[in-house]
Amino acid sequence: MREELRQTEVDLGGLVSVLAAHLYSTPMVALRELVQNGHDSATRRRLEDPAAPTGRIIVRGDADTTKTGAATVSVTDEGAGLTEDEIHSYLATVGTGYTRLLRDVTGSEDLIGAFGLGFLSAFAVADEVTVHTTSHREPGRGHRYHSVGGETYAVTEAPARAPGTEVTLRLKPDYAHLADTQTLREVLTRYCALLPIPVHVEDDATPVNDVPPPWRDGGAEPMVFAARFAQRLAPLCAIPVHLDGDTEATGLLWIQDAATYGSSDNRDLSVCLRGMMLSHDARDLLPTWAGFIGGVIESTRLTPTASREDLQRDDRYRDVQKGLTEAIVNGMFEIARTQPGTWQRVLNRHGNELLGAALADDRLFDLLADDVPVPTSSGDRLTAGALRAAGNGTIHIATGDSGGFTEMLYRAMQVPIARGDHYAVLPFLRRYAVARSCPTIELGTGDGDKRLFKDAEPLPTAEQDWLTAVLTDDGEQLVPARYAPAALPLVLVPDAEVALKRRIEADETAARIPSAALALARDFTAKTDGTVAARLYLNLDNIAVRRLLQAHRDDHPGRTTAAALLRSIKVIMAATAGDHRGDLSAALVGVGSAIERLVTGDGA
Ligand SMILES: Nc1ncnc2c1ncn2[C@@H]1O[C@H](COP(=O)(O)OP(=O)(O)OP(=O)(O)O)[C@@H](O)[C@H]1O
Predict the structure, then answer these.
(1) Measuring from atom 8 of ligand 1, which residue has the nearest CA?
(2) For ligand 1, is residue 19 a contact (CB within 6 Å)?
(3) Where does ATP bind (predicted)?
(4) Rounded to the nearest whole angstrom, what is the distance from the C-alpha of residue 24 to the centroid of ligand 1?
(5) How many CB atoms lie within 10 A of CB 330?
(6) This prediction's pTM
(7) Quick check: CB of 114 below 6 Å from ligand 1?
(8) Which residues contribute to the annotated binding site?
(9) Which of 320, 535, 593, 602 pairs with 234 at a CA distance of 20 to 30 A?
């Protein structure tokens, strides 16, 4: 039986709503497509008539809805225009465009359009589209294309205009904001930054793209261009990109100046193709540690997705990824070498992220190890080397939330302590210690504590038991020790592993931990039985402690009062450090009653 061939029908209305709702991430894309068409048309005109002026593109917004009942945006170009036949064959035929034919014939790399689809995106934001056009081949004739919804259209004769085209969108109410002049300036400054043809908003004398990219002939200074392009976070210094090989990526990256806020991942990369913005959020092309990098690159080798807002994750994409990582690393070396003042600012601004960067890349570790500042109890400006010098050759690191006690100890010792609980600090310092063969003390781990609090000779059991009874609270283990400064009678150090175990258990109950992570976390904390939540290091070099012990040995009647006073001091110190295991009000009352007893003679 013969098959009956039938024409596949296209539900254009459906297609437009798919474009509007699903294909494009932002309605701004419609503007991009129209500006791109204006650019292509100007290129076409110059190909067909080399004597033609460069021309320009003007974008106007009219947010006043009282005149026509809707906000409007228009895009006007001085390009080749369209004859009536061309309107039917190219503008109104989905999937076909003159632009691609022209590129195939001329080989011109300046033409952007390829799919014959972009114009359709106008209907994603507008319910009505009107086009006035005069072809440079028929200067005396004008045509008006008009369509409501895009499914049907009409073409009529209209007064001739200067060669070129004006497309006017009657915006749907949801997209009326596109007509706002300031919005247009902001969006087009980014979208058109690399376009060679001047793009003006309204009657602005200066085009939005008056700062040409530095990598082109006659381009602007890199920092001038970066300052114009980086709208959110100002640039601090620039890194040029010229990737060799297959990727042919060129562009400019910059280190952002602003201290980071919110998330520290401020990677911000735009990718352009033949001058037109393809993706303004291509951050995945930058290494994850580069949260302080902004930039724009262009490459004819990256493949856009259908929406032309993103890139195919193909081999070229991965090559560009690798190339950009190299460019950033080399660029950072270059800045450190040639602009020491700027480099210092980079280190101060992005110290935290750079610690992570140093861990991710060996060369960056070498570059940064001695210069990057580490957050410490004495501020955020000390390098690992300075920490080491201040610690008499040892780097002291707080590993968890051991908090105020630790800090107090270090303040008393006048040793700055690195905040090992901050991003990347602990692994960075561990690695630094190995690379520079220097000892570290990680406070809050049994091992670290042992090195800090020198074991004292064990006390007789009776004394140990008595001190435990009068000084410790639940979960605390009394450890006789000797440490500087001698003026500090006791230090309570929570066990970092137990603290972690508690947090994990709390998170587990609250179902905040995925089960895979939980298994790992359990492995990690398995070695701790959780019975010793904190160690109370009693300083046998301290005069008050020595006298207390003596009082116990002598059966002095004031020993219990003295011990209670010391215990209250411990609880109060712990409470100021955020450790609320002891009973603070009881401790405060305890101080009062101890003094009461001492002065009335009851305690002695
Ligand atoms: N402003 C304009 N001036 C002259 N011709 C135009 C203009 N806008 C569109 N055209 C014609 O209509 C065709 C279709 O445009 P459309 O935007 O749909 O696709 P395209 O630009 O060819 O490709 P792409 O989908 O990749 O943008 C173009 O190829 C061009 O021939």
Answers:
(1) 37
(2) no
(3) 33, 37, 77, 165
(4) 18
(5) 12
(6) 0.76
(7) yes
(8) 33, 37, 77, 165
(9) 320
